[in-house]
Amino acid sequence: MIFRSNETWHEHAVENPDEVAAMVDMSIRNSTERRRLGYFSCATGNPIDDCWRCDRKWELRRKRLADCSIGFGRNAIGGRDGRFYVVTDPGDDNPVNPIPGTLRHAVIQDEPLWIIFKRDMVQILRQKPFGICRCRHGYFHVVNNDYTHWEMYAIGGSAGPTINSQGNRFLAPTNPFAKEVTKREYTGESKWKHWNWRSEGDLFLNGAFFTRSGAGAGAGYARASSLSAKSSSLVGTMTSYSGALNCRAGRRC
């Protein structure tokens, strides 16, 4: 595949003054956020981790994690001020009437919550999903993720979202009918061909492929940029410590 440099991308962006202004504004905000998040920095390379994992009293100030957000969600309130919901049951046998204590029961509550786990329950998150990402309406920046083990697709969308995929690594499953990264829901090609979906600097493995649509560049993608993407070749290193954390109270996580 062909990787385009930042210089090339910016050269095309100059054709649209509004896009350039939006990119400059986003760059300034990202720089400010990174400086703010570096207060507890222990050089993990991940600005969100640097924001909280180096604090020895993280377990007493875990809700501070809500202040560590960057990108589009940095001002979202969500469950920030809600109570803690402890997931104690790894089961998922009753999707219609979820059992209290399960993750499924936690996510259907109609109040703000902080969902935490009593113990390592990685198996819950490893259940094979039909799609790894749901995108409806608006602008989505999918950046520097490692996508594996999807059942039907990795990125799905409906209702005309703008999707800007940058620097991700997509490893397709062995199923020959599940190699496509993307899936458009509830509409025909005559409509979704106008949706702005692009892939830039992504790495596709084991036959994975991304179906692009809409404009190749434009102001919509500037609005769908939340932070600077790193090379997809670094995704393995960046996600090497993902999963359940071995944290202990009184120590840096």
Automatic annotation (TrEMBL):
It comes from the Eukaryota. Gene3D superfamilies: Single-stranded right-handed beta-helix, Pectin lyase-like. SUPFAM superfamilies: Pectin lyase-like. The keyword Nucleotide-binding does not apply. GO terms for molecular function: pectate lyase activity. Belongs to the polysaccharide lyase 1 family. This is Pectate lyase.
